Amino acid sequence: MEDVYKLVEAEPANMEGPEEEEDDPECNNLHQPLLKRNRTLSSSPLAIVGAKVSYIESLDYEINENDLFKQDWRSRSRVQVLQYIFLKWLLAFLVGLLTGGIATLINLSVENITGYKLLAVVRYIEQERYLMGFLYMAGANFLLTLVAAVLVVCFAPTAAGPGIPEIKAYLNGVDTPNMFGATTLFVKIIGSIGAVSAGLDLGKEGPLVHIGSCIASLLGQGGPDNYRIRWRWLRYFNNDRDRRDLITCGSSGVCAAFRAPVGGVLFALEEVATWWRSALLWRTFFSTAVVVMVLRAVMEYCKSGNCGLFGKGGLIMFDVSGVSVRYHVVDIIPGAVIGVLGGLLGSLYNYVLHQVLKVYNVINKKGKLHKLLLSLSVSIFTSVCLYGLPFLAKCRPCDSSLADSSCPTNGREGNFKQFNCPNGYYNDLATLLLTTNDDAVRNIFSINTSSEFNVFSLVVFFALYCILGLITFGIAVPSGLFLPIILMGSAYGRLLGLAMGPYTNIDQGLYAVLGAASLMAGSMRMTVSLCVIFLELTNNLLLLPITMLVLLISKTVGDCFNPSIYEIILELKGLPFLDAHPEAWMRNITVGELAVKPAVVTLNGIEKVRNIVEVLKNTTHNGFPVVDSGVTPPTGSPNGATELHGLILRAHLILALKKKWFQQERRRTEEWEVREKFTSIDLAERGATIEEVTVTKDEMEMYVDLHPLTNTTPYTVVESISVAKAMVLFRQVGLRHMLILPKYQAAGVSPVVGILTRQDLIAHNILSAFPHLERSKGNKKGH
């Protein structure tokens, strides 16, 4: 039930035969949208959240300035204000501390599980028991994937995928159900460990963003819904506005994967958050600083060997601080080529992945068993490729300048894996495939190794990870997109470095870094945050100019073809995300034209209980304008006037009915009467329904004074304002309702023309309701 919506019918009245067939997953047409939307404005949106199609509501980011709110703020002492500020910083610290601790747990587990698994496989290979080595590796990967998939499918479907698109939608004002619960957090942690340890082509970066957001949400509300701590000081955070700020701090959890605190803050600012301010910037930076300090402390402790096979901490780190980086004019050309390739391949990747996700949606609709089979099939295919493809590569002799201990190597780390080769030789494809994804990145990013990898191995590696990246994302396990894209981009970057070898001074490892950055910019369309993340990874400021050039070119080329991968996923899921820039054609239609729909339901300032109950039972609206008739304005109109007192929320009406806020006579209540019955904490509670309310026959004839519960300062626009302008205001302020007022006020006419909600401003819905509107050529955005 979204905002001011008409009562949603269970099924359309005149559904035709072909449309009924489309509901059957077996008959789903891949060219049709995943979700069928209502062709009328203000309809309840459906979105794919986890395994189910759910009704989506908006969040109340607007401050509800009713009499109780004003009284609460007036009565707060200086100590209480300081306590509120202190608690914000304390929660930001706890978010960073817990996110860093969980990131450490994930890294420790993945490194040890994968390390011991690979060491066992290597022992079989040394004994030339290749079949047993494959069976051991495939069996271990199968079991790890099975654990992750069963947890996701059976306990927390919303834990699948990265979670970043849903967080993006939440911070945009969309309430995505079950995204931040304790069960989701637990499954995300265990599922990430299992999926990454299973060698699947996915990363833990996206899940860490979701994990940080879950921690922030649970801290802000005092724990899980069923076991919530109701401490008095937590009352400050019983609102969507403060919870949004906490989740923004948690969404910078990507820094836990890359040890990039500034990059994590900029990622939250550039990619995830819709609303930002300086105070939030400071707290987010504080959270990321705590995360990085926790990681650094654990890594220092683990250097002494107390953490098993923790190694370098499972964190991608490509330190080139000691490498001399020199640029010539000719180096701009390969940099530009990498940028163009990144934009083209990134947009192509987005398009193909879009089609794959549509196919997966058809499969996933068939039930839990099909989800499990899909995940396990991908696991088996991945194991076959990772173990079998290195046999296609030729053994290469070790460089005589290298020490015997570094070439060849038989452990889980090292740049020169012996695999099936004789002593003194190594298998370059096994070096990239028979290892963890993090170590594969370190190996392909390695510097001063111009002759380590040949063209055939890099082409096979690139082709394989393109295929694995497309088929792995979308299965029922927690997964991130960062690492697969880095692996693909680094492969073609290194290939270009081989081709440019005689003509450039840039190391092939640096070409691999630029290739990874270009593909990420071409697919995710991020620039500033990616630039800083790679700067913090490489630890070398000299790479900054060419990295900036590559990122800008990649994003520009990619934008010419399709949206970013996260925007595509948002559209597939049906989440009503408001874009930063309205469409150009939205300037040619006014909000008054959108308001041509059933008349808005208004309530009187002092309303009869019967009328309130009927309105709540017969509508699904979440906000109602409150008007007072016969008011004498300051100008002294002799006939009186109709005053718009404000807007009251559905939850507050239900609260008034539950607390029996009734009067025998029609009168306005005193301030002391309101304070005795309600508190600001009561107004923050959500989730109650009209079915839970019991009202007797005698109470039906009594009255309710709605004035103390009404938001007296709702945002309003005149009916002549353009949709484009209204959309910018709606998004920037984070509104749920926007009242449309008439341009001319006639006597006896309602002071409210209509109410704008999120669904009214979604381009798809407007075009469906107004077929005569056409998008401008080239689908350009209005600025």
Automatic annotation (TrEMBL):
Keywords: CBS domain, Chloride, Chloride channel, Ion channel, Ion transport, Membrane, Repeat, Transmembrane, Transmembrane helix, Transport, Voltage-gated channel
Bilayer topology term: Multi-pass membrane protein
Primary localization class, coarse: membrane
Protein family according to the UniProt entry: Belongs to the chloride channel (TC 2.A.49) family.
Entry-linked PROSITE patterns: CBS
Cited SUPFAM superfamilies: CBS-domain pair, Clc chloride channel
Organism in which the protein naturally occurs: Sesamum angustifolium
Name listed for the protein in its UniProt record: Chloride channel protein
Compartment annotation: Membrane
Membrane-spanning intervals of the chain: 84-110, 130-156, 246-269, 275-295, 332-352, 372-393, 455-488, 541-558
Single GO MF annotation: nitrate:proton symporter activity
GO CC aspect terms: chloride channel complex; plant-type vacuole membrane
Domain CBS as annotated: residue spans: 710-774
